[in-house]
Amino acid sequence: MYTVSDGEIRERFPHRWSACSTSVIESMPFYHVHPGSRCLTIGTAGCNFRCSYCSNAHIAKEDPELQQAKMFNIPPDELVAMAKRMNCRSIVFNVNEPAVSIPSLIELSREAEKAGIMTGCLTNGYMTEESADILASIFSFFNISLKGLSDSFNKNFIGISSSKPVLRNIKRLAKDRYIEITTPVIQGENDNELNNMAEFIAGINPSIPWHVFRLLPEDEMKDEDYPDINFIDNALTEARKKLPYIYFHNFVGSDWVNTICPACGDVVIERFSLGCGGDKLKTDHTIEGCCKSCGSEIHLLSRNLK
Ligand code: SF4
Protein backbone atom coordinates (compact mmCIF):
# COMPACT_ATOMS: atom_id res chain seq x y z
CA MET A 1 0.00 0.00 0.00
CA TYR A 2 3.09 2.22 0.23
CA THR A 3 6.01 2.85 -2.09
CA VAL A 4 9.16 4.95 -2.00
CA SER A 5 9.50 7.69 -4.57
CA ASP A 6 12.15 10.46 -4.54
CA GLY A 7 13.24 9.26 -1.10
CA GLU A 8 9.75 9.64 0.37
CA ILE A 9 7.21 7.06 1.46
CA ARG A 10 4.04 7.54 -0.56
CA GLU A 11 0.62 5.93 -0.60
CA ARG A 12 0.05 3.91 -3.78
CA PHE A 13 -3.74 4.20 -3.99
CA PRO A 14 -4.87 7.38 -2.20
CA HIS A 15 -8.59 7.79 -1.51
CA ARG A 16 -9.48 4.47 -3.10
CA TRP A 17 -11.95 2.50 -1.01
CA SER A 18 -13.02 -1.11 -1.05
CA ALA A 19 -16.18 -0.45 0.97
CA CYS A 20 -18.49 2.41 1.84
CA SER A 21 -21.86 1.79 3.49
CA THR A 22 -23.86 2.71 6.55
CA SER A 23 -24.41 0.67 9.67
CA VAL A 24 -25.28 0.97 13.34
CA ILE A 25 -22.31 1.55 15.63
CA GLU A 26 -23.09 -1.59 17.74
CA SER A 27 -22.32 -3.88 14.82
CA MET A 28 -18.68 -2.65 14.48
CA PRO A 29 -18.65 -3.43 17.47
CA PHE A 30 -18.63 -0.21 19.53
CA TYR A 31 -21.02 -0.51 22.47
CA HIS A 32 -20.16 2.65 24.41
CA VAL A 33 -19.86 5.15 21.54
CA HIS A 34 -23.11 7.09 21.06
CA PRO A 35 -25.30 3.96 21.42
CA GLY A 36 -27.77 3.46 18.58
CA SER A 37 -26.09 6.00 16.28
CA ARG A 38 -25.42 5.40 12.59
CA CYS A 39 -21.92 5.40 11.10
CA LEU A 40 -20.44 5.41 7.63
CA THR A 41 -18.12 2.40 7.34
CA ILE A 42 -15.13 2.38 5.00
CA GLY A 43 -12.09 0.25 4.21
CA THR A 44 -9.20 0.03 1.78
CA ALA A 45 -7.07 -3.04 0.93
CA GLY A 46 -4.11 -4.85 2.48
CA CYS A 47 -3.03 -5.62 6.01
CA ASN A 48 0.17 -6.05 8.02
CA PHE A 49 -1.16 -9.30 9.57
CA ARG A 50 -1.96 -12.61 7.96
CA CYS A 51 -4.52 -14.07 10.34
CA SER A 52 -5.35 -17.62 9.34
CA TYR A 53 -9.05 -17.03 10.03
CA CYS A 54 -9.48 -13.63 8.34
CA SER A 55 -13.06 -13.02 7.21
CA ASN A 56 -11.90 -10.26 4.83
CA ALA A 57 -9.01 -12.23 3.31
CA HIS A 58 -10.09 -11.36 -0.23
CA ILE A 59 -9.38 -7.68 0.57
CA ALA A 60 -6.80 -7.86 3.37
CA LYS A 61 -4.51 -10.64 2.19
CA GLU A 62 -4.51 -10.31 -1.59
CA ASP A 63 -2.20 -8.03 -3.56
CA PRO A 64 -3.82 -4.53 -3.35
CA GLU A 65 -2.85 -3.89 -6.98
CA LEU A 66 -5.22 -6.67 -8.04
CA GLN A 67 -8.04 -5.17 -5.97
CA GLN A 68 -8.04 -1.83 -7.76
CA ALA A 69 -10.57 -2.79 -10.42
CA LYS A 70 -13.13 -3.47 -7.68
CA MET A 71 -12.35 -0.31 -5.67
CA PHE A 72 -13.61 3.23 -6.14
CA ASN A 73 -12.26 6.72 -5.70
CA ILE A 74 -14.10 9.05 -3.32
CA PRO A 75 -12.40 12.28 -2.20
CA PRO A 76 -12.61 13.15 1.52
CA ASP A 77 -15.13 15.98 1.16
CA GLU A 78 -17.53 13.67 -0.71
CA LEU A 79 -17.23 10.94 1.93
CA VAL A 80 -17.99 13.45 4.67
CA ALA A 81 -20.93 14.88 2.69
CA MET A 82 -22.23 11.32 2.26
CA ALA A 83 -21.95 10.70 6.01
CA LYS A 84 -23.92 13.86 6.74
CA ARG A 85 -26.55 13.08 4.13
CA MET A 86 -27.06 9.64 5.61
CA ASN A 87 -27.37 11.00 9.12
CA CYS A 88 -24.16 9.33 10.35
CA ARG A 89 -22.62 10.60 13.54
CA SER A 90 -19.25 9.06 12.71
CA ILE A 91 -17.08 7.50 10.03
CA VAL A 92 -15.56 4.16 11.03
CA PHE A 93 -12.70 2.40 9.21
CA ASN A 94 -13.47 -1.29 9.69
CA VAL A 95 -12.55 -3.62 6.81
CA ASN A 96 -8.76 -4.00 6.96
CA GLU A 97 -5.94 -2.30 8.88
CA PRO A 98 -6.01 1.54 8.89
CA ALA A 99 -2.20 1.79 9.32
CA VAL A 100 -1.86 0.81 5.65
CA SER A 101 -3.71 3.96 4.49
CA ILE A 102 -2.49 6.72 6.78
CA PRO A 103 -2.19 9.71 4.37
CA SER A 104 -5.74 9.30 3.01
CA LEU A 105 -7.10 8.92 6.53
CA ILE A 106 -5.32 12.08 7.71
CA GLU A 107 -7.03 14.07 4.97
CA LEU A 108 -10.37 12.44 5.66
CA SER A 109 -10.19 13.16 9.39
CA ARG A 110 -9.48 16.86 8.70
CA GLU A 111 -12.59 17.11 6.52
CA ALA A 112 -14.66 15.17 9.05
CA GLU A 113 -13.56 17.41 11.91
CA LYS A 114 -14.60 20.53 9.98
CA ALA A 115 -18.08 18.99 9.56
CA GLY A 116 -18.36 17.84 13.19
CA ILE A 117 -18.27 14.13 12.28
CA MET A 118 -16.27 11.87 14.58
CA THR A 119 -13.87 9.25 13.21
CA GLY A 120 -13.09 5.83 14.67
CA CYS A 121 -11.44 2.62 13.55
CA LEU A 122 -10.90 -1.05 14.14
CA THR A 123 -7.17 -1.83 14.24
CA ASN A 124 -4.88 -4.74 15.03
CA GLY A 125 -2.66 -2.32 16.96
CA TYR A 126 0.55 -3.63 15.39
CA MET A 127 2.64 -0.62 14.37
CA THR A 128 5.49 1.59 15.54
CA GLU A 129 4.92 4.04 18.37
CA GLU A 130 5.19 6.87 15.86
CA SER A 131 2.43 5.34 13.73
CA ALA A 132 0.27 4.78 16.81
CA ASP A 133 0.60 8.48 17.60
CA ILE A 134 -0.43 9.36 14.04
CA LEU A 135 -3.49 7.10 14.31
CA ALA A 136 -4.32 8.80 17.62
CA SER A 137 -4.28 12.14 15.79
CA ILE A 138 -6.67 10.77 13.13
CA PHE A 139 -9.23 8.86 15.20
CA SER A 140 -10.95 9.71 18.44
CA PHE A 141 -12.18 6.19 19.17
CA PHE A 142 -10.62 2.77 18.61
CA ASN A 143 -11.54 -0.86 18.81
CA ILE A 144 -8.19 -2.65 19.12
CA SER A 145 -7.95 -6.37 18.49
CA LEU A 146 -6.17 -8.30 21.23
CA LYS A 147 -5.91 -11.60 19.41
CA GLY A 148 -3.62 -13.60 21.65
CA LEU A 149 -0.79 -13.18 24.15
CA SER A 150 1.61 -16.06 23.61
CA ASP A 151 4.39 -16.00 21.01
CA SER A 152 3.31 -19.41 19.73
CA PHE A 153 -0.28 -18.27 19.09
CA ASN A 154 0.90 -15.12 17.34
CA LYS A 155 3.37 -17.06 15.18
CA ASN A 156 0.96 -19.83 14.25
CA PHE A 157 -2.24 -17.88 13.64
CA ILE A 158 -1.33 -14.23 13.02
CA GLY A 159 2.08 -14.37 11.35
CA ILE A 160 3.95 -12.15 13.83
CA SER A 161 6.60 -13.08 16.41
CA SER A 162 5.16 -11.38 19.48
CA SER A 163 2.15 -9.48 20.85
CA LYS A 164 4.42 -6.97 22.64
CA PRO A 165 3.94 -4.08 20.14
CA VAL A 166 0.16 -4.55 20.33
CA LEU A 167 0.16 -4.51 24.14
CA ARG A 168 2.38 -1.41 24.15
CA ASN A 169 0.08 0.40 21.69
CA ILE A 170 -3.08 -0.53 23.59
CA LYS A 171 -1.59 1.16 26.66
CA ARG A 172 -0.44 4.12 24.59
CA LEU A 173 -3.78 4.70 22.84
CA ALA A 174 -5.77 4.21 26.05
CA LYS A 175 -3.92 7.15 27.62
CA ASP A 176 -5.61 9.85 25.62
CA ARG A 177 -8.09 8.16 23.31
CA TYR A 178 -11.31 6.27 23.90
CA ILE A 179 -10.78 2.53 23.33
CA GLU A 180 -12.71 -0.71 23.31
CA ILE A 181 -10.97 -4.08 22.84
CA THR A 182 -12.06 -7.16 20.89
CA THR A 183 -10.74 -10.70 21.24
CA PRO A 184 -11.81 -13.31 18.68
CA VAL A 185 -11.73 -16.68 20.45
CA ILE A 186 -10.42 -19.77 18.67
CA GLN A 187 -11.44 -22.99 20.34
CA GLY A 188 -8.49 -24.64 22.12
CA GLU A 189 -5.95 -22.05 20.94
CA ASN A 190 -6.41 -18.75 22.79
CA ASP A 191 -9.37 -19.52 25.09
CA ASN A 192 -6.90 -20.44 27.86
CA GLU A 193 -5.60 -16.85 27.80
CA LEU A 194 -8.90 -15.10 28.57
CA ASN A 195 -8.12 -14.61 32.25
CA ASN A 196 -4.65 -13.16 31.54
CA MET A 197 -6.11 -10.84 28.93
CA ALA A 198 -8.72 -9.64 31.43
CA GLU A 199 -5.89 -8.93 33.93
CA PHE A 200 -3.99 -6.97 31.30
CA ILE A 201 -7.01 -4.83 30.33
CA ALA A 202 -8.07 -4.25 33.94
CA GLY A 203 -4.50 -3.16 34.70
CA ILE A 204 -4.84 -0.34 32.14
CA ASN A 205 -8.38 0.71 33.04
CA PRO A 206 -11.17 -1.57 34.33
CA SER A 207 -13.74 0.61 32.52
CA ILE A 208 -12.50 -0.43 29.06
CA PRO A 209 -15.27 -2.38 27.30
CA TRP A 210 -14.01 -5.82 26.20
CA HIS A 211 -15.75 -7.74 23.42
CA VAL A 212 -15.06 -11.45 23.46
CA PHE A 213 -16.06 -12.62 20.04
CA ARG A 214 -17.05 -16.20 19.25
CA LEU A 215 -14.94 -16.58 16.13
CA LEU A 216 -16.47 -18.46 13.24
CA PRO A 217 -13.18 -19.17 11.43
CA GLU A 218 -12.92 -18.49 7.71
CA ASP A 219 -10.20 -18.55 5.05
CA GLU A 220 -7.44 -21.08 5.98
CA MET A 221 -9.40 -22.21 9.08
CA LYS A 222 -12.87 -22.53 7.60
CA ASP A 223 -13.08 -26.23 8.55
CA GLU A 224 -12.25 -25.66 12.24
CA ASP A 225 -14.80 -26.07 15.06
CA TYR A 226 -16.80 -23.11 16.35
CA PRO A 227 -15.91 -22.17 19.95
CA ASP A 228 -17.87 -23.73 22.79
CA ILE A 229 -20.27 -21.15 24.25
CA ASN A 230 -20.46 -22.66 27.76
CA PHE A 231 -16.68 -22.84 28.17
CA ILE A 232 -16.27 -19.14 27.32
CA ASP A 233 -19.31 -18.21 29.41
CA ASN A 234 -17.67 -19.79 32.48
CA ALA A 235 -14.31 -18.11 31.83
CA LEU A 236 -15.95 -14.71 31.47
CA THR A 237 -18.03 -15.02 34.61
CA GLU A 238 -14.73 -14.94 36.52
CA ALA A 239 -13.30 -12.13 34.34
CA ARG A 240 -16.37 -9.94 34.92
CA LYS A 241 -15.24 -9.43 38.51
CA LYS A 242 -12.31 -7.42 37.12
CA LEU A 243 -13.97 -5.88 34.06
CA PRO A 244 -17.59 -4.76 34.48
CA TYR A 245 -18.08 -3.90 30.79
CA ILE A 246 -17.45 -7.31 29.33
CA TYR A 247 -19.41 -8.63 26.34
CA PHE A 248 -19.59 -12.02 24.68
CA HIS A 249 -21.17 -12.10 21.27
CA ASN A 250 -21.35 -13.31 17.70
CA PHE A 251 -24.09 -15.83 18.39
CA VAL A 252 -27.84 -15.38 18.41
CA GLY A 253 -29.45 -14.89 21.82
CA SER A 254 -26.37 -13.97 23.86
CA ASP A 255 -27.19 -12.68 27.35
CA TRP A 256 -23.84 -10.92 27.41
CA VAL A 257 -24.68 -7.99 25.14
CA ASN A 258 -26.33 -5.72 27.71
CA THR A 259 -24.46 -3.10 29.73
CA ILE A 260 -24.78 -3.63 33.46
CA CYS A 261 -24.28 -0.77 35.91
CA PRO A 262 -21.07 -1.64 37.81
CA ALA A 263 -22.43 0.03 40.94
CA CYS A 264 -25.96 -1.44 41.35
CA GLY A 265 -26.12 -4.27 38.78
CA ASP A 266 -29.15 -2.92 36.88
CA VAL A 267 -29.26 -3.27 33.10
CA VAL A 268 -28.56 0.22 31.76
CA ILE A 269 -28.31 -0.45 28.02
CA GLU A 270 -30.16 -3.35 26.34
CA ARG A 271 -29.12 -4.77 22.99
CA PHE A 272 -30.14 -7.56 20.62
CA SER A 273 -27.58 -10.12 19.59
CA LEU A 274 -28.25 -11.12 16.01
CA GLY A 275 -24.96 -13.02 15.58
CA CYS A 276 -22.30 -12.39 12.91
CA GLY A 277 -21.57 -8.87 14.10
CA GLY A 278 -25.18 -7.78 13.69
CA ASP A 279 -25.86 -6.47 17.19
CA LYS A 280 -28.30 -3.61 17.68
CA LEU A 281 -29.45 -1.27 20.39
CA LYS A 282 -32.79 -2.17 22.01
CA THR A 283 -33.15 0.43 24.77
CA ASP A 284 -30.76 2.90 26.31
CA HIS A 285 -32.00 3.44 29.88
CA THR A 286 -29.22 5.84 30.89
CA ILE A 287 -30.13 9.37 31.86
CA GLU A 288 -27.45 11.80 30.70
CA GLY A 289 -24.98 8.93 30.70
CA CYS A 290 -25.84 7.77 34.23
CA CYS A 291 -27.66 4.74 35.62
CA LYS A 292 -31.37 5.58 36.01
CA SER A 293 -31.58 3.48 39.20
CA CYS A 294 -28.57 4.60 41.25
CA GLY A 295 -27.25 7.62 39.34
CA SER A 296 -23.74 6.20 38.87
CA GLU A 297 -21.86 7.38 35.82
CA ILE A 298 -21.56 4.85 32.97
CA HIS A 299 -18.34 4.89 30.94
CA LEU A 300 -19.57 6.24 27.59
CA LEU A 301 -17.75 8.16 24.90
CA SER A 302 -20.81 10.37 24.49
CA ARG A 303 -20.52 11.49 28.10
CA ASN A 304 -16.86 11.32 29.05
CA LEU A 305 -14.90 12.22 25.97
CA LYS A 306 -15.13 14.45 22.95
S1 SF4 B 1 -5.85 -8.08 11.19
FE1 SF4 B 1 -7.97 -8.29 10.50
S2 SF4 B 1 -7.93 -7.75 8.31
FE2 SF4 B 1 -5.81 -8.15 8.93
S3 SF4 B 1 -5.48 -10.32 8.40
FE3 SF4 B 1 -6.11 -10.22 10.57
S4 SF4 B 1 -8.34 -10.52 10.55
FE4 SF4 B 1 -7.70 -9.99 8.43
Overview features:
306 residues, alpha/beta, TIM Barrel, 23% strand, globular, binds iron/sulfur cluster
Q: What can you tell me about this protein's structure?
A:
- This protein is 29% helix and 23% strand.
- The two termini are 31 Å apart.
- The model has no long low-confidence stretch (mean pLDDT 94).
- It is of the alpha/beta class and 306 residues long.
- The chain has a single domain (2-252), classed as Aldolase class I (TIM Barrel).
- The protein has 10 helices and 15 strands.
- The protein binds iron/sulfur cluster.
- Iron/sulfur cluster (SF4) binds at residues 47, 49-51, 54, 56, 60-61, 96-97, 124.
Write a concise synopsis of the structure shown.
The protein has 306 residues and is α/β, with parallel strands linked by helices. The protein has helices at 57-60, 64-67, 76-85, 102-114, 129-138, 151-158, 164-176, 194-204, 229-239, 301-304; strands at 2-5, 8-11, 16-17, 19-24, 38-43, 72-73, 90-93, 118-123, 141-145, 178-185, 210-214, 246-249, 259-260, 267-272, 280-284.
Write the layout of secondary structure elements.
Layout: E1 2-5, E2 8-11, E3 16-17, E4 19-24, E5 38-43, H1 57-60, H2 64-67, E6 72-73, H3 76-85, E7 90-93, H4 102-114, E8 118-123, H5 129-138, E9 141-145, H6 151-158, H7 164-176, E10 178-185, H8 194-204, E11 210-214, H9 229-239, E12 246-249, E13 259-260, E14 267-272, E15 280-284, H10 301-304
Parallel strand pairs: 5-7, 7-8, 8-9, 9-10, 10-11, 11-12
Antiparallel strand pairs: 1-2, 3-6, 4-5, 13-14, 14-15
Helix pairs in contact: 3-4, 4-5, 5-7, 8-9
Bound molecules: iron/sulfur cluster.
